[in-house]
């Protein structure tokens, strides 16, 4: 990945086991009845465009076994006069990560690895990681061996200690110098470069959003013997009839790709197409596990519906219900106090490639939702969530950079109502 892209990815937003409500058919008796107010959502989408926070938006909600809402506002390409449509293709950035996690957990179900196996058992380059241990008299970093090996559980829950782009520490500088996410690297080369970067902290000690999901993609490739993009296509996209989702898109779809708008000084400027073209259309060598999928909203909703249904959709079984529950259960030990910006997103913790809600919103400005919800979002302000308590999945698309969390707060208020709390937590 180009260094400018690594810098962008740095801003991607960019285990106490808490029981998850039943994933498919059962509704917990304490849940407030939720009514989808279509007019309220329409008004909110219109306001997002009118106040300049987004150039174009769309939202799709599936509830109680049927489509409960679809709406769109604004432009996919304002300068080209192209409205945001249902078939608009969107760069989902980090909403790629749950797809990668599902792929890896399919291999776990097949007995290819155990969650607490050392990562180096399957990817030997990751043996003997280093952590900074102060500096010498000249201010240069001193390194020591990490307190324990990185496990596969660590790369699933962002506790490996990996970096993700630039930052204030010597380990961040080493990441930047190694340039593992350069688009000219394939996953094997990414892995070799990533493995020589020291860790930000000992494995399991802290939560650091990182390139761990790209390591997951490499692990899928290594365990399956299949190129990562091919594995996902044949084991997830094709069974789910996600007909256009993918990393490497044919050029004929380029006119349907939403432009990305970068907001500066209160105005949104169209970003040059070179980065997205380089990631998706000419065919970069690197297929990232943490970003890069382009999809229309209906394709991603099919993925979300599969999760809501406990791992299956329209006769296609992707994962077992118990595996979905495992992924959607908070995996962060209470002793993990350093969690970067995660507490700002949700009243809860993190599972396997999902944030997990474990408590009701405790302040009026907090994102609305129900306990047991799991979700993730993307750098260009896209969002999806799965709400088993209300038998609901939602997908929100836009292409706004920098990441704007107010869009997520507002779409949730429109879906749930400003005062919604859902079922009580434990």
Summarize this entry quickly.
The chain is of the alpha+beta class and 426 residues long.
Explain this structure:
This protein has two domains: 3-105 and 227-416, DD-peptidase/beta-lactamase superfamily (Beta-lactamase, 3-Layer(aba) Sandwich), CATH 3.40.710; 114-224, no CATH class. The chain contains 13 helices and 17 strands. It has helices at 3-10, 38-50, 97-109, 152-157, 170-178, 187-195, 212-224, 228-237, 274-280, 297-308, 321-327, 342-345, 405-416, and strands at 56-63, 66-77, 82-83, 90-91, 130-135, 141-145, 261-264, 267-270, 294-295, 312-313, 316-317, 348-350, 355-357, 374-377, 383-387, 392-398, 400-401. The strands form five sheets. It has an eight-stranded antiparallel sheet. The chain has a three-stranded mixed sheet with strand order 8-7-17, with no helix packed on it. The protein has a two-stranded antiparallel sheet with strand order 4-9. A hairpin with a 5-residue loop joins strand 5 and strand 6 (141-145). Helix 3 runs parallel beside helix 7 (212-224), helix 3 crosses helix 8 (228-237) and helix 6 crosses helix 7 (212-224). The longest helix is centred in the N-terminal third of the chain and has 13 residues, at 38-50. The chain is globular and about 60 Å long. The termini are far apart.
Secondary structure layout plus pairing:
Blueprint (H helix, E strand, L loop, with lengths): L2 H8 L27 H13 L5 E8 L2 E12 L4 E2 L6 E2 L5 H13 L20 E6 L5 E5 L6 H6 L12 H9 L8 H9 L16 H13 L3 H10 L23 E4 L2 E4 L3 H7 L13 E2 L1 H12 L3 E2 L2 E2 L3 H7 L14 H4 L2 E3 L4 E3 L16 E4 L5 E5 L4 E7 L1 E2 L3 H12 L10
Parallel strand pairs: 7-17
Antiparallel strand pairs: 1-2, 1-16, 2-3, 4-9, 5-6, 7-8, 10-11, 12-13, 13-14, 14-15, 15-16
Helix pairs in contact: 2-13, 3-7, 3-8, 6-7
């Amino acid at each position: 990945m180009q260094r400018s892209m690594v810098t962008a990815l740095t801003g991607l937003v960019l285990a106490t086991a808490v029981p998850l409500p039943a994933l498919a058919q059962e509704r917990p008796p304490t849940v407030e009845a939720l009514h989808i107010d279509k007019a309220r959502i329409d008004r909110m989408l219109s306001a997002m465009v009118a106040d300049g926070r987004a150039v174009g938006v769309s939202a799709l909600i599936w509830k109680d076994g049927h489509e409960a809402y679809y709406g769109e506002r604004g432009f996919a390409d304002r300068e080209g006069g192209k409205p945001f449509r249902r078939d608009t293709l969107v760069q989902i950035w980090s909403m790629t990560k749950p797809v990668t996690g599902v792929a890896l957990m399919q291999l776990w179900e097949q007995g290819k690895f155990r969650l607490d196996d050392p990562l180096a058992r399957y990817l030997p380059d990751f043996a003997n990681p280093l952590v900074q241990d102060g500096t010498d008299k000249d201010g240069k970093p001193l390194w020591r061996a990490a307190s324990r090996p990185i496990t596969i559980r660590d790369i699933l829950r962002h506790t490996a200690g990996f970096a993700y782009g630039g930052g204030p520490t010597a380990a961040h500088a080493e990441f930047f110098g190694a340039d593992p996410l350069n688009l000219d690297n394939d996953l094997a080369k990414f892995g070799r470069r990533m493995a020589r970067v020291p860790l930000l902290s000992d494995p399991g000690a802290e939560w650091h959003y990182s390139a761990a999901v790209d390591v997951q993609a490499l692990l899928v490739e290594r365990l399956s013997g299949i190129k990562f993009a091919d594995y996902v296509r044949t084991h997830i996209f094709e069974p789910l009839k996600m007909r256009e989702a993918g990393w490497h898109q044919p050029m004929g779809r380029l006119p349907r790709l939403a432009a990305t708008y970068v907001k500066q000084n209160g105005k949104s400027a169209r970003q040059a197409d070179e980065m997205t073209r380089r990631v998706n259309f000419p065919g970069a060598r690197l297929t990232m596990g943490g970003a890069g999928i382009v999809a229309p909203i209906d394709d991603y909703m099919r993925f979300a519906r599969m999760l809501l249904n406990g791992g299956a959709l329209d006769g296609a079984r992707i994962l077992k219900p118990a595996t979905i529950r495992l992924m959607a259960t908070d995996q962060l030990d209470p002793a993990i106090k350093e969690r970067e910006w995660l507490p700002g997103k949700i009243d809860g913790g993190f599972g396997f490639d999902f944030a997990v809600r474990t408590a009701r919103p405790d302040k009026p400005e907090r994102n609305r939702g129900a306990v047991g919800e799991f979700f993730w979002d993307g750098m260009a302000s896209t969002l999806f969530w799965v709400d088993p308590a209300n038998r609901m999945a939602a997908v929100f698309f836009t292409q706004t950079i920098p990441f704007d969390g107010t869009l997520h707060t507002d779409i949730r208020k429109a879906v749930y109502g400003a005062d919604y709390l859902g079922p009580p937590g434990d």
